[in-house]
Amino acid sequence: MSLKLCQGPDCHTYHTQDRLKGIKGSKTYQTRRRSNFYYGNHNFCDQKCLYDWVNKYIEQGLDHFGRTTEAKHLTEENAWQKTYDWDRNYENRSYVYRNGITQEQRPLTEEQYNDTNYTLNER
Ligand SMILES: [Zn+2]
To answer: What is the 30 CA–ligand 1 centroid distance (Å)?
Structure first.
């Protein structure tokens, strides 16, 4: 089993017992190593390390991949969202497609609701 290293630039500077390694006289705080991580697409040991990375590299990342310079628009054709309403006794759901701009509603089957490929949006 290969271990992954946390990608947080300052991971090794946090004083926790699990980071303190080595024999007496030559102990060091070390970057966390684990079989898996849960933060930042499995690259960071915790939220602090994830945000350390974001704070350090976000400007470079935005410059590299391109900044949003104009507001994007979600038009009527793509404003459909799947949702459901409960009946009076909270026993049955009725599924609907609701347009967030026109407020038009169209009925949906439960199957269509659960089908991630089914959409009324044009995209
Ligand atoms: Zn870390």
So the answer is: 9
Q: How many angstroms is it from 22 CA to the middle of ligand 1?
A: 18
**Closest to 78 in 3D by CA, of 19, 27, 121:** 121
pTM of this structure: 0.70
- The answer, yes or no, to whether residue 1 has pLDDT greater than 90, is no
Could you give the percent of the chain with pLDDT greater than 90?
88
Cα 2 to ligand 1 centroid, rounded to whole Å: 17
* Per-residue pLDDT band at 2 (split at 50, 70, 90): confident
For 60-99, the DSSP string reads: HHHHHH----S-----GGG-EEEEEEE-TTS--EEEEEEE
Tell how far the Cα of 121 is from the centroid of ligand 1, in angstroms.
Answer: 40
Cβ neighbours of 52 (radius 10 Å): 20
Between the CA of 118 and the centroid of ligand 1 the distance, in Å, is: 39
Gap from CA of 38 to ligand 1 centroid (Å): 11
